[in-house]
Every structure is written in structure tokens, then in C-alpha cells.
Specification:
- By secondary structure, the protein is of the alpha+beta class.
- It is built from 9 helices and 12 strands.
- It has a 5-stranded antiparallel sheet. It has a 5-stranded mixed sheet with strand order 7-9-10-12-11, covered by helices on one side. A two-stranded antiparallel ribbon has the order 6-8.
- Helix 4 runs antiparallel to helix 5, helix 5 runs parallel beside helix 9 and helix 6 packs across helix 8.
- The longest helix has 54 residues, at 3-56.
- The chain starts with a helix and ends with a strand.
């Protein structure tokens, strides 16, 4: 069942229920009003007969009966015997006030005793009251049915008009494909719920287009980054692919090929880590990690690179246990220290400072990696953590993916990160992550 049909039916049902309540109330009020009017008439007849009895005896009984057709009057003795009655008095009527059923008819009866004990009875058939009520109910039901049908068609038209912009949105959205991400839905003139929905959908399309654009850029730049070491590796192999190549040339080519292979391995690892980060952001595998042991492992793994560059690594790590994803944190810390060794200038010192704050359940881990290299240059540094971005003063080879994987790791831990220039020269990279037992 369509929304339009449901709205029309709900509107019609609502109108029908409202009219049914109104009909019931009117029916009840009209019945009460007619019965009250009839009781007033009977009271007037009784009072008239009593007055006539006091003044003229019983001579005025038939005369008063002609004043209100349908109303009958009867006189009973104090012992309950019928003394006189109008011609339309039903047989078997009793001298008791209230409603009496005789011969399939309901009669409203009112009685009052005179001073001499005579009981005056006035009554009337209730069928005219019931017929009036039935006629009114029939009219109201007919009007209600017509109003219900009219409200259904009116609701159908109103719902169609209200839902027409949604239908247009559906038609427009169905034509937008992967190659049309620059298209947007046309917003209606009025900024109502449909207008806000259109703006929300357009904002969603903006986010999708941005994500697809970043994905395409990621693939293009990854292909570019992979092409250079592969081309160098192929050139080195082609250079020794001849019969007169010497052993020294083979060794040189092997060393160069090993460097390119390591570069390709690191680049592939960074690409895989970065590509998997958004999907695994909520699947952080936290475990108890000894912080000094973790930093020492990362430092020893980078010791050969540090010796090659003439750089020393100074660790300032408190004895503490943190609850983090060890694999990701090792990779992130290794990227920061490796960048500091590579771009921090030869012969210097890379400082690694760790700080654990807070209680066990709510503790945080802050890591700082500092160098005394050329620094980051002027201007903002947030872009350094985007894929394939490098600092203006970065030297040597690099893919621009290391800091992006650091950002992905910290975001997966729901932490913060940043970079800035140090006073006196050099750079400071840092991140803070929750490291408590959860």
C-alpha cells in the first residue's frame, strides 16, 4: 500500500470517527431534549387537569385532552380504580410515573394526586420521539458517509500534492550514477521538510563525491608512487642483463635492487594499512602492552637506519602498561621515528618522550617524537597527515604515506595528533590516545 493511499485512508477514517462521535452526541442530546419537552407538556396537562378538578370537578377532562393531540389523561381514585380517561388512553395504563410498555409501545407517564386523593395521570406515546431521533440519525449518517467519501478523495489529492516533490526526488536520484557525482538534486522553493531532506541528500552526495574523489586520487598517486621504484628496479636488472657484466656490477645492481625492494615493501605496507584503516577503525584489538618494551622494540628495529644516518635515538619512557593495539601503535611510532631519522638531519638526536596520565581505567598515552632537523616550514601542518603529502623541507625518498597511517591509527584509537616546529629548530610530532582498560 502506497503512502498516498495510507494517508488518504487515515484522513477519511479520522473524519468518519469524528462524525460518528458527533452523531452519537447529537442523537443523545436530541433524545434528551425531546423527552424533556414531552415531560414539560405532560406536567402542564397534569396541572391543567388538577386546576379543572378543583374548579369544575371532572367536566374539563375531555376539553383539556383536545389541547395537545397525542397526550392522554386519566383519573384514578385513591384506591387505584380508573374513574375517567380521554378516548386515546391506552388500556392497561397504570397510575405510576415513568415509562410503561403496553402492546409494543412505550409510553411516558406522569402522575400527581389531587387534594381529595384522586390521581391525575398524563401520558404520551414515545414513538414520535424515537422516530424523530431515527430520522435525524439517518440524515447524519448519510451526511457522514458523503463527508467520508469526500474526505478520502480530498485526502488523496492533498497527499498526492504533498508527496509530488518526493516523487521528483526519487526520479532525480535514480538518474545519478557513478559517473554523475557532480549532479545534485533540485531543491524545492519552500524550505519545509522536503527542502531539508533535499539539502541532506545533496550533502550526502557531496560526501560521497569527496570520498570517491579521494579514492581515485589515492589509486592514481599510489600507481605513480609504485611506478618509480619498479622502473628503477627494472632498469637496474636490465643494466646487468648482458654477457660482459662484471661481478661488481652484479653486486651494485643487487644492492640497488634490494633498496628498491625495501622501498616497495614499505610502500605496500603503508598502502595496505591506510586502505584498511577506515574499515577497521572500530575493530581496534586492545591488549595489555608494556610501554618500555614496545618503544625499545621499535627503536632496535630502526637502529640500522639511525646508524646509517649518524642519528642517535633517546628514549624517555616511564614504566607503565597501556591498553592499545600493539601492532598499529608499533607501526605508527615506527613511522614517526623513521621520519625523524630520515628528515631530521644527519648526526643529530631523535628524542622519543612518552607520558601516561590519569587513572587505570581512564588513562591516556601521549607520545612525542622530536628532532633537530630543518623543521616543517611556515604555515599550517594539518595537511602533512593526508595521503601523499610531504613537508616543504622534506628531503630524500618518501611516499608521503607514513604520517597518513599514523593519523589512521590514532583515529582508530579515537585519539588526537599534530605536528609543529620546535623552538630552536626541528620538528615535534605527537599523538594522544586513550590507553585505559576498557
Amino acid at each position: 500500500m502506497s503512502i498516498r493511499l495510507r494517508l488518504a485512508l487515515m484522513y477519511a477514517i479520522g473524519v468518519a470517527v469524528t462524525l460518528a462521535v458527533v452523531v452519537a452526541i447529537v442523537y443523545w442530546l436530541m433524545g434528551g431534549a425531546l423527552r424533556g419537552s414531552l415531560e414539560t407538556t405532560l406536567r402542564t396537562r397534569v396541572d391543567g387537569v388538577l386546576t379543572s378538578l378543583e374548579n369544575q370537578g371532572q367536566a374539563g377532562l375531555q376539553e383539556t385532552g383536545r389541547e395537545a393531540p397525542g397526550v392522554f389523561v386519566a383519573l384514578y381514585s385513591s384506591t387505584g380504580l380508573l374513574g375517567d380517561a380521554t378516548s386515546n388512553t391506552p388500556p392497561g395504563i397504570l397510575p405510576h410515573s415513568g415509562t410503561q410498555s403496553i402492546g409494543g409501545h412505550d409510553y411516558l407517564v406522569l402522575t400527581q394526586a389531587a387534594q381529595d386523593g384522586t390521581v391525575v395521570l398524563a401520558g404520551s406515546d414515545l414513538r414520535p420521539v424515537a422516530d424523530a431521533q431515527a430520522s435525524l440519525a439517518g440524515i447524519l449518517v448519510g451526511v457522514g458517509l458523503m463527508a467520508g467519501v469526500a474526505s478520502f478523495f480530498g485526502g488523496w489529492l492533498l497527499a498526492g500534492r504533498a508527496l509530488r516533490p518526493i516523487g521528483q526526488l526519487v526520479d532525480d536520484a535514480s538518474t545519478i550514477g557513478p559517473g554523475d557525482l557532480d549532479r545534485r538534486l533540485v531543491a524545492p522553493r519552500r524550505m519545509d521538510e522536503i527542502g531539508r531532506l533535499t539539502l541532506t541528500l545533496n550533502a550526502m552526495l557531496d560526501r560521497i563525491a569527496g570520498a570517491v574523489g579521494k579514492q581515485r586520487l589515492f589509486v592514481a598517486m599510489a600507481s605513480h608512487e609504485l611506478r618509480a621504484p619498479l622502473a628503477a628496479l627494472r632498469a637496474e636488472l636490465d643494466d646487468v642483463d648482458r654477457d660482459d657484466a662484471s661481478v661488481g656490477e652484479y653486486r651494485d645492481a643487487l644492492r640497488e635492487a634490494q633498496v628498491d625492494a625495501l622501498r616497495l615493501s614499505g610502500l605496500a605496507t603503508s598502502l595496505l594499512e591506510l586502505a584498511a584503516a577506515p574499515e577497521d577503525a572500530r575493530a581496534v584489538a586492545r591488549s595489555a602492552v608494556d610501554l618500555p618494551e614496545l618503544t625499545d622494540t621499535v627503536s632496535r628495529g630502526l637502529a640500522p637506519l639511525a646508524r646509517q644516518r649518524g642519528v642517535s635515538i633517546a628514549l624517555q619512557v616511564p614504566p607503565a602498561t597501556v591498553w592499545v593495539d600493539r601492532t598499529r601503535l608499533e607501526h605508527a611510532l615506527g613511522n614517526l621515528i623513521g621520519n625523524a631519522i630520515t628528515h631530521g638531519g644527519g648526526g643529530g638526536e631523535v628524542e622519543v618522550r612518552c607520558r601516561v596520565e590519569g587513572r587505570k581505567a581512564d588513562q591516556t598515552l601521549t607520545v612525542e617524537v622530536l628532532d633537530r632537523g630543518p623543521g616543517l616550514g611556515p604555515g599550517p601542518t594539518d595537511h602533512l597527515f593526508e595521503p601523499f603529502q610531504r613537508g616543504a623541507r622534506a628531503d630524500g625518498v618518501g611516499s608521503g604515506l607514513g604520517l597518513a597511517t599514523v593519523a589512521a591509527t590514532v583515529e582508530a584509537h579515537r585519539g588526537r595528533f599534530g605536528a609543529e616546529n620546535r623552538d630552536g629548530g626541528g620538528a615535534r610530532f605527537w599523538f594522544t590516545v586513550p590507553a585505559g582498560l576498557v
